[in-house]
C-alpha cells in the first residue's frame, strides 16, 4: 500500500489536513517531532476545557465546546489493562506502553488514551504542558486527591510556573500538610472562580490574615483563616468548616457587611465545633451575641428569595428557611440569618454550630 507524504505538503494544505484529525491522532502527530508539534499549534482549534486531576490514577480531560457529549481523557494508571493491545508512544524522548479504549455512559462518550502513571506524576505533567501548547489553551481546573505535603507543594509550584492563573483549584491533602505549603497555595496561586481546600487536620500556629479575592471559596479545617482575612477579602460564596471564629467575630462580620464590606457576597456558611459546656449551649444567648447592636426582623417567606446557591459548576447548596431573621443594608439588600445546633452522635460532648448568611435583593 502506498504512503501519502503528508509532511512534504506546503504548510497551508498540510494545516488543512491536520484540522480533520481526531483528538488522539492530533496528539500522536504532535509527538512525532518539534516540527509537527509547532505545526499542530498553528491550527485554529476550538479551545477545549482542560481538567488535570492528580491522584493515584490521574486523568487529563479535554472537553470541546462544539461537542459537549464527548470527552477525550488521557488516563495515567498504576496498572495497565493486559487484555488490550499496547502500543509504544514516545514522550519527551522516553517510550511508554499505551492503549486506546472507549466507553458509553448514557448519551455521553468517553475516549481513553492510557499511559502508566509514575510516583511523581512526571509523565502526566509533561503531557499537560504538551497539550496546553498544542491547543494553545491553559488548564481550566486542577485537582489533587490525597497527596502528601511534598507532592502537593511540587504540583502547585509547577502550576505557578506553567500559567498565571487557573479557573478552578481543588486541593485534597493528607494529614501531613505543612504551613509553608498552605502559605504558598494561598499566596501564589491565582484562582479566578472556585477554590476548595480540603485539609484533614488543623495546622497549629498558622494564621492567614491576607485577603482572598476568589469568587467561590470552600475550606475545611479553616482555623487558619482569621477575621481580618475575611474582612479584607472579596467573595461571592464563602464556606468555612472547623472555623476558629467566635460569636463576637461573626457579629463583627455582620456589622461590616451592613456598612458595605464585601458587596459581592451572596452566601456565607461557617461551622464551628465546641466541646463541653459553653455559652454556645444556650441558643438564645448565642444569637443575642451574634446580633448584638443589629436591627433584626423575623424573616417572612418570599417567593423572590432564591432557595439554592450555586458555588461553581459542580456544587449547589440548598438554603434553610426555618427560624430565620433578616438584616437590611441601606441599599435595601437583605441578609437572611438562620442558625442550627446539634450534637454529633458519635461524640456526644461535641456541639456543632452552623451559621449562615444568605444575601439577596
UniProtKB/TrEMBL annotation:
Residues 3-58 form the F-box domain. InterPro entries: F-box_dom (IPR001810), F-box_Sdz-33 (IPR012885). PROSITE patterns: FBOX (PS50181). This is F-box domain-containing protein.
